[in-house]
Amino acid sequence: MLTLAVCLAGAGCRSTYYAMWEGLGKEKRDLLKDQVEEAKEDQQQASEQFKDALTRLKELYGVDGGDLERAYNKLSGDYDKCDARAAQVQDRIERMETIAADLFREWEEEIETYSSANLKAGSQERLTETKVKYRALAAAMKKAESGMAPVLVQLKDQVLYLKHNLNAQAIGALRGEVVDIEKEIASLIQDMNQSIAEADAFIQTL
Hints:
By secondary structure, this protein is mainly α. The chain has one domain. The chain is 87% helix and 0% strand. The chain has 7 helices and no strands. The mean pLDDT is 80.
């Protein structure tokens, strides 16, 4: 994954990267399909991680003082996992965007080499349709990805408050906050599900 991120950062390196895969029988469209599928899987995993964090948060209100520290440690671990998943989703979307841009650029350049006007027009129409579907996919993924940040902020506040007030009184002060976080996560999961559906639809066009 690190090698891929480095290669996609520079145009020269990307040319080498694409050439290597073409030698193995994989074109840019295949690489884009792979990235879309992996981005979908990353979002599915992130969605489950945020659900787990919400469940953990709710469980906190049922623990007694003696178990509070253990509950805090678990919630803190959930936050770290959510944060890592969010970063992974962001990186995957960036790589997907890079490959898509390179694919569309190559497609546009190759269209100009047609000698047949009919075939050229057909290919141009297909490119336009694919771009429209891709933009819908990218927008859905970015919407879901951007929804992670405010949820992470609220989760971090919960973790820090428990850390600084590791006692039974902290639970009472936090009860009202969980409702807001639950709404944020529900909205985030809805956006992720929409993004996943867009990914499935786009994959069928490749």
